[in-house]
Batch of 2 targets.
Target 1
Amino acid sequence: MQYINTTIDGIDGSKADFSVYSIDNSQEIDPQRRRPTVLVIPGGGYAFTSDREAEPIALKILGAGYNAAILRYSCAPSVYPTALLEAAEAMKLLRTNAEVWHINPDSIIAAGFSAGGHLAGNLATTAGDETMRSHGYDPDTVRPNGLMLGYAVTTSGKFAHRDSFVKLLGTKNKDDAKLLEEVSIDKHIDAKTPPTFIWHTVSDETVPVQGAMMTFAACVRAGVSVEAHFFPTGHHGLSLASAEAAAAGDDQGIDEGVQQWMPLFLSWIKRNFGEQETKA
């Protein structure tokens, strides 16, 4: 397996950490294999990026035979659009290096958790298109081919996780109506939004499940292929909902029911993107 670790320069002088886990090809099996790849974007309320939503997720993806990448984007005091542009650059790197990293460039899924889900949605929908264009990116060339939203922050309206938007926009712009509209993912879902997988717990006390429901409904209205799973119980930030990724001292961080999201997600990848593509 190749492991590539590099940094992406933020527009404000910050640096994002970008890691790629690329499964080696085998001359014995298939020397030209190109695999679907999942770009993992951890959450943390735009204040930090969670370890529990980074490598533990990537390792599960790798175990299923897909490549994985992790973007630890710039958080506060960095403000919008720093993280979005770092995500765009991460996608550009994945596609530019698709051959050497054995990636199918048409099968890249952005998988985001909590605030990381907001960033994934910002990248995958048309929410950030004009901003990316103004910084030299063609949004259609860096848009992922699939989107996974795990207990994601998606709306800046009534059911917003307000602190995420305060960190994202900064105290100076936290009440800017135009900016809040721009970064409300549910308002920018259209025909360009890729196939989407959503999961959330109904009892999430931090990021209300209504935001996920609004996002699901927006996908349906726009004709976007969408699969959603709403689990009745479980607190915010469960990651894999297993002992492997539970926070220290969190007795409620292990939930066998919620653990099912990962096999459901892997099945969704297989149905939508296949297992591999062999280069002609």
Target 2
Amino acid sequence: MAEVNKEVDNGGAEAIKGFNFQKANVILLAINNFQKNNFKIYVETEDDIVVSYENYKAYIQVKKQKHTFSSISKKESKKVQGDDGKKITRWSPSILEKNLSSGAASDIYKIIVKDIGSSDKKKLDLKKPGSICREVYKINDEARREIIQALPEKLRSKLENFYFYISPINDDLNEAVKYLIGCLSGINVSVDDNRGRIVIAELSLTIDQKAQEILYDGVDKEIKAMDTNYFSKVFVTYETLNQFDRVLNSLGYNEIISKRIRSERLKIELNLTDVKKDIKEALQEILDNDNFSDLSNLEIIGLIFKRFESLNLNRNTLIAVAVECLCEVEV
């Protein structure tokens, strides 16, 4: 049996420590796209965000400011001390150059911004919908002529696949959290009883962990990925929770115990997948045995509890996992 050593951080769900504009946009991209085939988000690899699914791949820079063509095309300078002790200027690639430097000519390139300068916005064409964003701005011929001169020649052809995305994420991060909770509700994810904030806290923590992973030669880039399987576990729907409540209510526990078991349900898909797999196999054995065909839900849960009580899990946690498994094998 796998050892369970991670728990949902309810305190983090209240504070959502370290939550910022980039994380909020990663979460928004996940909410809107996680059901696509082979969907993955990579954090802090070739770019701030890399999104892929099927034959699509996008490299994304995230900038929490209003930007213009000039600001994204301007090389950054820094005064440093040379070997001879004299000050020299070192130049870094522009935001746009960094964005276009990864990937292949067929890939997509985006810069997520808070807004675009009004005069430059007039030189952009609005596209609805984008592949992973509800709407994006593509540069027109006039804009391309302005921007292209600031780019190395080898990157100029990639402008054809370059877009701006104006993020709807609010500067006030409390408002940003509320917005994301609304988006979760919009895809039928349960956000009641503080679940919405817990989901965002879990995602925020995972994004931090992925960002901090360092890639060395030979290290698989997939350690930086979050995929459809992960997001599907985190985004628990009302339908799933209603089924869980229906089975739980059939057990006859009092309201206090039932509430505690429901709160443990939040941990199952995030932290107890190995335990769940073992319990589901044991449950299937019980249900396939004709001698147990007349058992009530409560009696079945009792058998599971006896078989797995040596795991040293909280009683309510173990019951929650058993109920969840019973929901999934009931059909």
